[in-house]
Amino acid sequence: MKFFDVLVVGELNVDIILDKIQGFPVVGKEIIAKEMTMTLGSSSAIFASNLSSLGNKVGFLGKIGKDDFARTVINTLKEKKVDTENIIQSEEYQTGLTIVMNYDMDRANVTFPGAMEHLSLDEITDSQLQKAKHLHLSSVFLQTGLLSEISELFKRAKNLGLTTSMDPQWDPTEKWNLDLEELLPYMDVFMPNTEEFKHLTKCSDIQSGLDKVKSYANYIIIKDGENGAHLWDGEKLTTQPAFLNSNVIDCIGAGDSFDAGFISEYLKGGSMLHCLEFGNITGAINTTASGGTGAFKSLENVKKVAFDLFKYQL
Question: What UniProt keywords apply to this chain's record, in alphabetical order (predicted)?
Answer without folding.
Answer: Kinase, Transferase
